[in-house]
Amino acid sequence: MSVLDGFQLYPPILVLHVAAALSTGLYFLVRLAWRLRHLRRPAPPARRVAWAIDSVLLGAGILLAVLTGQAPWRVPWLAAKLAMLALYIVLGMVALHWSRGRPAMAASGALALLVYAQILAVALTRSPWGLLRLP
Fold first, then answer.
1. Which one in 2, 52, 78, 92 has a CA-CA gap of 20 to 30 Å to 101?
2. How far apart are CA 108 and CA 62, in angstroms?
3. Whole-model pTM above 0.90?
4. What is the sign, positive or negative, of the torsion defined by CA atoms of 126, 79, 115, 57?
5. Distance of alpha carbon 101 from the chain centroid
6. Local structure of 117: helix, strand or coil
7. How far apart are CA 36 and CA 102, in angstroms?
8. Banded model confidence at residue 2, pLDDT cuts 50, 70, 90
9. Rounded to whole angstroms, how far apart are CA atoms 76 and 127?
10. CB-CB contact of 20 with 60 (8 Å)
11. Is the Cβ–Cβ distance between 96 and 32 less than 8 Å?
12. Distance (Å, whole) CA 65 – CA 2
């Protein structure tokens, strides 16, 4: 594949990545609302949908990094985004799987959504400070 082919692939992959990023946040919010209302896990297909969305998100993100030649150890905002992604995953697991009772679920879910917002802000500003950098 030539460099020109990579540049032609960039716009649709970016759109896919952004769509998956927005979808994963919305789907997490729906699953969290379900858990808070029913205090039980949704049916297994709900988890598979989340895995599918997150796999597309990760795959598109990796492709974008390869196409642009960016690596987390060279690009501070990308390193921050990946570190916060790990925190978001842990908080999401706490909220959706490990917490007992609504208060713990709501608190960990709210923290996960705050971290998600920070991830989006880091991506939009291309600054590791994200929300803290916005005017």
1. 52
2. 28
3. no
4. positive
5. 25
6. helix
7. 6
8. low
9. 7
10. yes
11. yes
12. 16
